[in-house]
Design brief:
Chain lengths: 193, 252
Amino acid sequence: MFVTSAFAQETAPAATEGDTHSGTGVPAEAHGTFPPFDPATFPSQLLWLAITFGLFYLFLKRVAMPRLGGIIDVRNDRISQDLDQAAKLKSEADAAVAAYEQELAEAKKNANSIGQQAADAAKAEADTARKKIEAALDEKLGEAEARISSIKANAMKEVGSIAEDTASAIVEALVGDKAGKAEIAAAVKSVAR
Amino acid sequence: MAADKVDPIHQFHIIKLIPIKIGSYDLSFTNSALFMVLTVLVAAAFLYLTTSSRSLVPGRLQSVSEMAYEFVGNMLRDAAGTQGMKFFPLVFSLFMFVLVANLLGLIPYFFTVTSHIIVTFGLAILVIGTVIAYGFMKHGLGFLKLFVPQGVPIYLMPLVVAIEVISFVSRPVSLSVRLFANMLAGHITLKVFSGFVVSLSAFGAIGIAGSVLPLAMAVALTALELLVAFLQAYVFAVLTCMYLNDALHPSH
């Protein structure tokens, strides 16, 4: 109901608009027309729209937008700066880890060689000590063998004289005659051989 | 007086606050002008005050300002490319002006600036005027290529050019009428339903019970109008971006 009556008046402004623009002055009575289509209000609304919107445009262009753009730019700069720094710190940390690992590997290598050297030295020392002991033992063994052989020779020598004595005694008992000492010695020697 | 209260057209009346008359023109400071000033002050103060701390990590209100700024900026860059960014202040002020005017109009007893066709038409003419002025300044007569699409057979050309010209001329009309009609219709509907509540509740207990339905309707419509207020500001800004793109790149 309300709406239709309002839109029915749409046609009215067409006539009044002509009046204002032809400059006859006083706009036609405004009360009957639908307010948004009342041309009498157009100049005033356009003027104030131009003033207010113009000032608003200038304010945004000069003050508000540079500030907003600045805030956003600063933030973006800051973020990229922080990211750069983080990347730098990470690469530094990586380098430190690599250096540490290299040092560790070197130290391991050093430790191995030191251990090897110590083992070699100990082995060499042990070898010399063993050789010395072996030599001493050999010497003692030689001495002992020499002594044994001299004792054996002595014993053999005494075995000859005992055999001679025994043989002369046996011969004397059997024959009743003393056999020549030289003969007995020769007979013993030939048997002992 | 009682009839005045439920008259849905009453809210659109222009009231002269400070009568000014220059020559034959009535340039009075009216309630419409007052709300234009209010719109500009609210929008400018909001953008100015919320960004005054220039926080690296924005608060809620600063975020709203930044979101509006980047929203319009991205919209313009998508539609018109980086070249179009020279029109960023224009598009941003149009968006903020229309948005704040629409939102202020939703407050009871407030006048809705954008419900007057002359206001929306003024803004639309500003857009089309910028498009035409910049188009001819940048491309000279080459701007007229806008009306001559490539790859159209010669015998169809007169028809196509006529259609292109008509569609170009109707742009300011459609741009202004869309915004105006949306705001007008929304506010009339709101007023009609609210009027039902008032009239029905005059009939005693039954009337009050019956007025629940239009009241619920008015509440729902208010939410819808909030959406429309934002949507129409967005549509106005998007279309402005697309028309500006024509001024930058006239050949199809």
